[in-house]
Design brief:
8-stranded antiparallel β-sheet, 15% strand, Glucose Permease (Domain IIA), 56% helix, 3-stranded antiparallel β-sheet, 377 residues, elongated, alpha+beta
Amino acid sequence: MARLLLALFCLLALPAAAETPREARTRAAEAERQAAEARERRAAAEAEAERLAEARVAGAARVQATERELLATARRAEAARAAEAAARAEAEALTRRIAPLLPVLARVATQPAPLLLAAPLPPEEVALGLAAMRAMVREAQTLAEALREAEARAVREAAEALRERARLRLAEAAAREAAAALDAQLEAARGRAAQYGAAERAAAARAEEAMARARSLEEALARLEQEEARARTARRPARGRAPPAPETGPAPTPAVLAAGPPPVVGEVVRGFMSPGEGGPARGVTLVAAPGARVVAPCAGLVAFAAPFRSYGRLVILECAPGQHLVLGGLERLDVEAGQRLRAGEPLGVLGQGPRPTLYVEWRRGGEPVDPRPLLRM
């Protein structure tokens, strides 16, 4: 019995039968199939992300186009309203000039001679009076003709103002529709932070922490550049590995990076290095319509996206190594730190005040440079 148990134990202790070549090939084929499916899923996800990014760029472009058309239509409507008001004011002024003369001129125009002949005046004074009356009649006729023209022009300008107001309503509706469509795209893309790489999320978190400790935008950008330099150092290959191929060509400049649209539909109200209470401006300030959409004028990484000091909601884009674009004054943010953007993707919207402003600062190697080439202004 003991020998039987010992034999059974030895049988159980023997290793499993070796895998046959056919089974090994089957298992390898299955692993390859699963890997191929994973690659396909990843490629499909990347293609879908690219498609959605293109859709957001196109949607933001439509919003800015409608905002541009809305601004132009509003200006035309205002010009038509002002022209109508000017024509009516001119007609009212002519009416006031003519009104006191109308009773006398109406009688003089029909029977000028009896009025003068009835007066005990010398013949030469009667002749002068007749000439003066004829001049008054001609002047009244001229004023009456000018009045008719002013009234006709007022009618035309009123009709044009009415048409422009109708166009303005259509432009407003188109702008609302485009903005709603873009907001729907952005809402569908909420929670995309999980798609970012772990390294990018960690770098964004460190950047936000560094920005939170900064007392000024100048210090914040310096801290941000230090964090990015530290991250680039951490990504360098270990000793013994081949270094990456060196980059060729000159460093990107604002003109090279200006591949996207202007950040907002507006106009510059304070230029680069213009004097002010706090010293020369290190960026430019643009005024835009209430609720105007702000987009990325360059492709890059969102290094920071949160409220900051007196700048309101602030976005910092790293468009190239050592090159940062600062956009401040947003009311709403549509991006998150760590997100990679294409040029033209929406960043957020301005406030609903009467004249909301967007502050834009361009930093290259830590130094402020004129951002207008990048902004195509």
